[in-house]
């Protein structure tokens, strides 16, 4: 799928409820990853101005932190 999509079009392939998708879209809108607008009776969504690089960096920081914690826990459990 390319270009704008309605909430229903976003929900259909994942067998999600419209209300569930609306909540997800609202969260993505709050960080400018998605922009939506009322078009007729539907709400149309498109990519927003924010870039995923910021999110990827944030996720990577947490991944490294959790890996370090799990390595420490593993060493503790194995008695090293």
Range of helix content: 55-70%
**Whole-number mean pLDDT:** 92
Low-pLDDT runs: none
Shape, please? elongated
Q: Provide the CATH superfamily of the largest domain.
A: Winged helix-like DNA-binding domain superfamily/Winged helix DNA-binding domain
In CATH terms, what is the fold-level topology of the largest domain? Answer: Arc Repressor Mutant, subunit A
What oligomeric state is this?
single chain
Work out the number of β strands. 3
Give me a quick take on this structure.
The chain is an alpha+beta fold and 80 residues long.
Q: Care to describe what's here?
A:
The chain has helices at residues 7-11, 18-30, 52-77; strands at residues 5-6, 34-39, 42-47. It contains 3 helices and 3 strands. The radius of gyration is 19 Å and the shape is elongated. It has 2 domains: 1-48, Arc Repressor Mutant, subunit A (Orthogonal Bundle); 50-80. The model has no long low-confidence stretch (mean pLDDT 92). The longest helix has 26 residues, at 52-77. It is of the alpha+beta class and 80 residues long.
Relevant terms:
3 strands; elongated; single chain; 80 residues; alpha+beta
Please give the structural blueprint.
Elements: E1 5-6, H1 7-11, H2 18-30, E2 34-39, E3 42-47, H3 52-77
């Amino acid at each position: 799928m390319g270009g704008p999509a309605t909430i229903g079009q976003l929900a259909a392939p994942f067998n999600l409820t419209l209300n569930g998708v609306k909540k997800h879209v609202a969260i993505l809108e709050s960080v400018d990853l998605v922009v939506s607008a009322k078009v007729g009776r539907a709400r149309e969504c498109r990519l927003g101005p924010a870039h995923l690089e910021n999110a990827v960096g944030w996720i990577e920081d947490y991944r490294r932190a959790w890996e370090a914690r799990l390595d420490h826990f593993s060493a503790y459990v194995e008695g090293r």
